[in-house]
Design brief:
The structure is a single chain. By secondary structure, the chain is of the alpha/beta class. It folds into three domains: 80 residues, Winged helix-like DNA-binding domain superfamily/Winged helix DNA-binding domain (Arc Repressor Mutant, subunit A, Orthogonal Bundle); 98 residues, 3-Layer(aba) Sandwich (D-Maltodextrin-Binding Protein, domain 2), CATH 3.40.190; 104 residues, D-Maltodextrin-Binding Protein, domain 2 (3-Layer(aba) Sandwich). It contains ten helices and 13 strands. The strands form four sheets. Strands 3, 4, 5, 6, 11, 12 and 13 form a seven-stranded mixed β-sheet that branches. This is LysR family transcriptional regulator. GO terms for molecular function: DNA-binding transcription factor activity; sequence-specific DNA binding. Keywords: DNA-binding, Transcription, Transcription regulation.
């Protein structure tokens, strides 16, 4: 079954650009455009509207894309069943995650996973923001926080509690805050310079939210560097418990205002929807769901 033109059409619909689709598929944009034109001529229907420099499906093209995707998913499922691809992890596993979490955990987890499955190759893409699935052929994304509405399939792995911390040296110099209002007289280690103008919202023991201004301090947009700044006595920080678990155990940082918390962030493994899930994707998500259980500072519900 020849699917080059159909695949080119679907990828163009996904990415909104023939040039972007050609780049992902490793094809020449002109040749890819000709294949889609030939497909339109064969069907006797205009599938894409290319006016105004923007490529979008026509009404008939959108309907065709939805039906075609379902048919190709079934075909892929049949091939995977016959070839055994849905049983044994093979091919290239492409994973993306935030830089800090990826460096701390995912890189070594992927090396362990590859030792378990020697027929597998791995691409790990670490970024400060969400990486586009279609443009990068991503199999699995590890994402924290609320997910945008989409057709992607998400499996919750854990919750990421966040804590207020400071070094004993800093607290000895500046005093220990006893109420959230006391925080306004302190310096902070911020994760972004935007935090200088954004109040910190904490949830108290009665469930009421408290907003605190935090204008002064140092801003560092990397978790491990922020940890180092806190340990060095640069100020108070609100950050992920997993990043400070060791320091809290050693006493190099102290947990302050424990009755006031910042809501935990959910951690997800996200994949594209598919009738058949490749073994490399399914096995890796199962693998990560077990690995997070051993991470201090993550909350995993049974």
């Amino acid at each position: 079954m020849t699917r080059i033109a159909e695949t080119a059409f679907l990828k163009t619909v996904d990415l909104g650009s023939i040039r972007a689709a050609a780049r992902v598929l490793g094809q020449d944009p002109t040749g890819l455009s000709r294949r889609i034109t030939a497909l339109e001529q064969r069907l006797g229907a205009k599938l894409l509207d290319r006016a105004g420099g923007v490529t979008r499906p026509t009404a008939r093209g959108q309907a065709y894309a939805e039906r075609l995707r379902a048919i190709l998913d079934q075909f892929d499922a049949l091939e995977a069943e016959v070839s055994g691809e849905n049983v044994t992890p093979t091919g290239i596993l492409r994973v993306t995650a935030a830089i800090d979490f990826g460096q701390e955990f995912l890189a070594r987890w992927l090396m362990e996973f590859r030792r378990m499955h020697p027929g597998l190759d791995v691409d790990l893409i670490l970024a400060s923001g969400f990486v586009d699935f279609g443009a990068n052929n991503i199999d699995v994304a590890i994402r924290a926080g609320a997910l945008p509405d989409s057709s992607l399939v998400a499996r919750k792995l854990a919750d990421l509690p966040r804590v207020l911390v400071a070094s004993p040296d800093y607290l000895a110099r500046r005093g220990i805050p006893e109420t959230p209002a006391d925080l306004e007289d302190h310096e902070f280690v911020l994760f972004s310079d935007r935090n200088r103008s954004e109040p910190l919202t904490l949830i108290g023991p009665d469930g009421q939210s408290v907003r605190v201004r935090r204008a002064r301090g140092i801003a560092i947009n990397a978790v491990r560097s922020a940890v180092a700044a806190v340990v060095a006595g640069q100020g108070i920080h609100v950050g992920p418990l997993w990043a400070f678990a060791d320091q809290l155990d050693r006493g190099t940082v102290k947990h302050i205002l424990p009755d006031f918390t910042k809501p935990a962030l959910p951690l997800y493994a996200v994949r594209q929807p598919s009738t058949v899930v490749p073994a490399r994707t399914a096995h890796f998500i199962d693998f990560v769901s077990e690995k997070v259980k051993g991470v201090p500072g993550l909350t995993v519900k049974p």
